[in-house]
Amino acid sequence: MTEWMPIILFAVICLVLMAGFPVAFTLAGTSLLFAGIGLLTNTLDPAFLSAFPNRLFGILNNQILIAVPLFVFMGVMLEKSRIAEQLLRNLGLLFGPVRGGLGFSVILVGMLLAASTGIVGATVVTMGLISLPAMLRTGYSPALASGTICATGTLGQIIPPSTALIILGDVLSSAYQQAQLNMGIFTPDTVSVADLFVGALIPGLLLVVAYLLYTGLVALFQPGAAPAVADRPTMSPRFLLELLNGLLPPLALIIAVLGSILTGIATPTEAAGIGALGALILAILYREFDLKRLREVVDSTLQVTSMIFLIFIGAALFSLVFRGFGGEELVHEVFNDLPGGVFSAMLLVMVVIFLLGFILDFIEITFVVVPIVAPVLLTMGVDPIWLGIMIAINLQTSFLTPPFGFALFYLRGVAPANVPTRTIYRGVIPFILIQLALLGLLAIFPELATWLPHEIYG
Amino acid sequence: MQQLINILDGITLRTGQAIRWLALLMVLISCGVVLLRYSFDQPSIAMQEAVMYLHATIFMLGSAYTWQQGGHVRVDVFYRGWSKQRRRWVDRLGILFLVLPTCLFMLWVSWTYVGNAWAIQERSQEASGLPYIYLLKTLILMLPITLILQAIAELLRSLTATDTGAAQHD
Prior knowledge:
The complex is a heterodimer.
Chain A: H1 5-17, H2 23-40, H3 47-50, H4 52-60, H5 67-80, H6 83-95, H7 101-112, H8 120-138, H9 142-155, H10 163-182, H11 193-221, H12 237-262, H13 268-285, H14 291-324, H15 327-337, H16 341-356, H17 362-368, H18 370-379, H19 384-400, H20 406-414, H21 421-444, H22 447-457
Helix pairs in contact in A: 1-2, 2-14, 4-14, 5-13, 5-14, 6-7, 6-12, 7-8, 7-9, 7-11, 8-9, 8-20, 9-11, 9-19, 9-21, 10-11, 10-17, 10-18, 10-19, 11-19, 11-21, 11-22, 12-13, 14-17, 15-18, 16-19, 19-21
Chain B: H1 2-19, H2 22-39, H3 45-68, H4 84-119, H5 133-160
């Protein structure tokens, strides 16, 4: 019985989560109740609990995650100052006259929005509110429109510089160190947030290309599903100027932020700070800036940051209790006893994460599940960057999958009532297939994720 | 009773409304750090640490406010569809068995840890760093204290709420 305690703890937490009380409190509270049982039955060493304050200080002191509120600030600023909206409108004007053109614009804007909160809900809602009405008005099939929006809304998390990748990078980097210490390597290699960003570039762009291709094929073979915008803009110099004016500055900002991280000129935190200030300046330049909006931006930043870090704190208590009950050894044993070695261990983790993606968001899974499974997988010789990208794309697929996928719920929330839920489900299927194909490709050719980081950082 | 709820809610609200501006300050100072480092080749450890302090203060003191505003994510697959009555029970039980024990535990387990930092007036390990590590560590006590205040407000609100929809946070 005692050796199964960690599994029971995990299962009970999943059950309690279903009641709908905030995740952070559920994680911490349920773990604490189990710790109480453990102390009473003498099956838990109190030393694990007394390590908690030090863990908390580690969270306050975490240098990498300081980038999180800064990136959130930047994303919310870009969103609230309606820069994304303008971007979509301008791209729509540019590509609109082409069949499928509006679909292309939505995908591209979704990719650029990546820097935005990195929280699935926010991006899907924003995209749903801006793009869905426009696509439906133009005569897009509701299935294609909602599929495109769900898929591009979740795309944000694996396109750098997403908040999701920063958190995943931080968690993976400590898991990687731990794995190497377990193996007796005392001068461990490191894996950084920048490594993960670079690793995500090729797979992320492949996804974008695949989405664009799919939309293009639909436009080619089912012209009725992705028609061109009826009214063509006149290509006057004034129109072109306006187009560039709306397009270049945000694009430059995102490229500057990403570029300075990838080339190593700036740390993710520095780049995030500059990006946040840049977004603020853009808002001023576009005359979308006032005190009320600034207040909304700092308020959202505070709430999203608190939400993320309170989950981190809850997860820290969970992981202490989980370890206290011998959870690590248990996971290790289970993985080592699997027939098929690394392959089946990885497959098992992927399936579990996919299923957990139905109830937990990216952040929770990164803080709760990844620290449990990653050290074991990394000890078995899995590449940390590849693991991170696989997890990210897997989760993104999970968020798209009916009937529980997060993205679907959020889109349902903002979609007009005359778009039936069935249609949304039908619309995402092609995108799920694209995701699965990419996961398969990555499994066969890990170089898709690992080649570029090794090329750049050696 | 309502008065007590209002007072507690007010404390949380004001704290949140003040704390949120630290996000802007954090952006500005972190840009200052970059500017100093790249233009004048002068890394400022004190300023870097200030950014870290601000960052920590935002979520340690902002969590109760975020809770009040409904910003902590829930798995609402079922919750969303439940009756107000049922959701209120989830919240009451959650506060009693999850939030309050966790906060009391945090206070109890961190008390000496933070006390020790105060006793030696713990400062940064960097010579030019900020000498206020003990204040930073005090946030570890502030988080449960602010959460307990809000928990009492939420609990009382849930208990006094009538089913005619008088509760403001449903």
